[in-house]
Amino acid sequence: MLDGAHILVTRPAHQAETLSRLIAERGGSAIRFPTLAISVMDDPCPIKNTLAHLDRFQWLVFISANAVTMHSYYIDNGKINSKSTKIAAIGQATAQALELAGLSVDLVPENGYNTEALLAMPEMQQIDGQNCLIIRGAGGREELAATLRSRGANVEYLDVYKRIIPGIDNPQIFLLLAEDKLDVITITSGEALQNLLTMLSKEYHQRLLAVPLVVISDRIRKIAAGMGFKRIAVTDSPSDPAILETVIKCASGEIEWPN
User: Fold this and answer.
1) 157 and 171 belong to one structural domain
2) What is the Cα–Cα distance from 197 to 239, expressed in whole angstroms?
3) Residue where one domain finishes, among candidates 113, 146, 163
4) What counts of helices (H) and strands (E) characterise the chain?
5) Positive or negative CA dihedral for 43, 45, 49, 51?
6) Cα–Cα dist 217/206, whole Å
7) pTM metric for this prediction
């Protein structure tokens, strides 16, 4: 179905396996080039201190599967010892990561997979006076905390990981770009997209901007358009099957791009 199309997979290395396998199963060639890596925070003491006193929060909000994984890195038994604390997940992938970690999920958006979908849930409406801890990577979006505070909640952040640019190189990418044989690029965050441009020398940027780009949200689409990408397709969800479906549409010519 993909007929040997070269698909650039920019997910972090530990999250690229499923999408790469799906691409291969459909006859494509997955070119792995992680543009983000997840790293522990420099000082674990503030994190461990917060995790030791979770009973003062009514809500723990996990922003990503990485937040779940890295939270578990800092906590001794991997459990949250508070019956009064509820757990919210930003989307289904985060909820699945929580369940795999042995943590019960009390709230996950029924429709959607982002901050807006979580804020629309009834449980996030009447939250005046409640203490919320947002568990995330350093430097995340501020909209969730700002909205919860506007509704009267007391909100704190717990940054359990930081994103860094991987120190890797893949000469195959330069060759594919030089020969106009890179067919589709997949991107799952604005930061990953910015890092892609940083990791590739400027002489390749114009060729890169001409390659069809598959992104997982309209917010990332706007970022990509601002960078100069011309052909951008947005998936129905951030799941790997949804990304694959959009990749196939791009590679097969089903999408009509603006001139």
Assistant:
1) no
2) 24
3) 163
4) 11, 10
5) positive
6) 23
7) 0.87
